[in-house]
Amino acid sequence: MEIDTKVTVHDAMTSSVITADPKTTIAGAAVLMSRFKIGSLIIVNEKMAEGLITESDIIEKVVAKNILASEITIGHVMTKNIITIDPGSELNQAARLMAKNDIRRLPVVDNGNLVGILTSTDVLMVSPELTEILVENARMENQKDYSNLEKSVPGTCELCGNYVEYLDVFDGKFLCDECKEDLEDE
């Protein structure tokens, strides 16, 4: 008898997704994010995911442009045509999709209905070995200039192999604080 050991998106996703209506103001969205201590909201219309808004969207598209958050709706700011994934997909497929599209959140959709959300943190918590995919993508995105990377992504230190919440870039490698300090002292 063969045992199925594949880890699926369903195994790692969060099924209780905080959502908002596209008519919600940006101020209302910020209140929701703050209250639930989350960095994004999925925008739904009758259980159908139609967009996503992140803290970065609010900063870049509203605050930086000095637009009053109570006078603009999520629908005007949200990212449309979002990339989604099926709950039965393998987790490594989700990690590759995130890395390829440089995203950290994937709405999980089953037969058109939103059933969960998968974040890069969820992937790393359930399957730390997939860290390589996400770290490699971060390295490729930032290979030209490591100087402006402070704390990057959670993952496995390239020197000692320990999993840590924050990796620092030092000499072109993702390292834990301890290994970075050891190399700096040499």
Question: Explain this structure to me?
Answer:
This protein is of the alpha+beta class and 186 residues long. It folds into two domains: 9-126, CBS-domain (Roll); 142-185, no CATH class. Helices cover 35% and strands 20% of the residues. It is built from eight helices and nine strands. The chain has helices spanning 9-12, 26-36, 55-63, 74-77, 91-101, 120-126, 131-141, 177-185; strands at residues 19-20, 40-45, 48-54, 105-110, 113-119, 155-156, 163-164, 168-170, 173-175. It has a three-stranded mixed β-sheet. Strands 4-5 form a two-stranded antiparallel ribbon. A two-stranded antiparallel ribbon has the order 6-7. Helix 5 (91-101) packs parallel to helix 7. The protein starts with 8 loop residues before the first helix and ends with a helix. Mean pLDDT is 83; it is low at 144-151.
- Overall strand count: 9
Q: Tell me, what's the shape?
A: globular
End-to-end gap: 54 Å
Low-confidence regions:
144-151
* Main sheet properties: 3 strands, mixed
Tell me roughly what share of residues is in helical segments.
25-40%
* Count of structural domains: 2
Global structural class? alpha+beta
Under CATH, the homologous superfamily of the largest domain reads CBS-domain
**Order of strands across the main sheet:** 1-2-3
